[in-house]
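Q: Give me the 3D complex with magnesium ion.
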Amino acid sequence: MKDISLNAVKKSFGGYEILQNVSFDLIRGEKVGLIGRNGSGKTTIFRLITSAEETDSGAVSVARNATIGYIEQIPEYPEGTEVIEVLKQSCQHIFELRNELRILEHRISNTKDKTAQTKLISKYEKLLLRFEHLEGYDIDVKLEKVCTGLKITDHMLHRDYNSLSGGEKTRVMLGQIFLNHPDILLLDEPTNHLDIESIEWLEGFISQYKGSAIIVAHDRYFLDATVSKVIELENGRTKTYKGNYSKYIELREEEIQRQFSAFKNQQKKIEAMEKAIKRFRDWGTRKDNPDMFKKAVNMERRLERIVRVERPTEAKKMGLDLSSVQRSGKDVIKLIEVSKSYDDLVLLDSIDLFVYYKDHIC
Ligand SMILES: Nc1ncnc2c1ncn2[C@@H]1O[C@H](COP(=O)(O)OP(=O)(O)OP(=O)(O)O)[C@@H](O)[C@H]1O
Ligand SMILES: [Mg+2]
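A: Here is the predicted complex, encoded as structure tokens.
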């Protein structure tokens, strides 16, 4: 079953076509990585899915009744709203139901009238069924798990939400979304404000998540641990690759290599034909032979008809001759247990740092 489907979507801003042909499906339960350079249109895709923006053409469809969890921007709450209230907001109905059940329990115990009691019990049973269906019994455990995983401490739970830092607010919003357990998660750089332990917790959480997810992230390990499909957005177009991020890199490199050697072979052929045309023309002029000119014109026509293989953009941008240059490897910078101090001031204490090919770090 498809949770989301985009078909030949186009979107422009101010006359500039950001999305030219975006097509992909998100199958129920699938976790997908959405990859693309800054400004390529990833957030725009999320905004189209949530109907915050409209397409210029093409179709975006979301499964009927499917709920979506997406933090577009950090929302505002009235002054004095505690973090715990913000967190509970997404599952407010469960807490309200629990309260109602408690009140009913109290009334049932205190009602002497048998008919009234039977009526109350029947209402209680109905509500209890709904409470069970909403997994109400697990709500406290879920709240605790989410708080532990996202490092939302007891102290933080009772702080004014508005006084939190941007990163802390993001963690609370993630917590709120997870407690709500929507069918589809749209996560736009969720690891940005998280420390490594919370990132690892999030990896586990997403892997076990029953719903579907589209994840925009620049953290390759995070993507490797969570996604089984990668959608690459480049020059306004999408391409889908099966597998995690490492597999995507592998497949893409193979594709670039293939395209580059096809491009080079075709260039050789074109060059040879151009030389032959020049030769026929030379002979035609020198020997005053119209047949040679005819041959030249014929070959020119054949040359014009050749469908040109495009030079792969990656090779174009980097000015690489991929056919002859072997990559030095995936490791660009490797620091292992590096320490640096100035007298008593320890700046680096046994630091490990790995920068891999295509990593962007700050
Ligand atoms: N409402 C808008 N009006 C005008 N331009 C917009 C609007 N929304 C997005 N854009 C432009 O569209 C382009 C794509 O933006 P978008 O935020 O989707 O990129 P992104 O891939 O999410 O980038 P990043 O990785 O930096 O988050 C950008 O050039 C952006 O300035
Ligand atoms: Mg974005």
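A quick observation: The longest helix spans residues 245-286.
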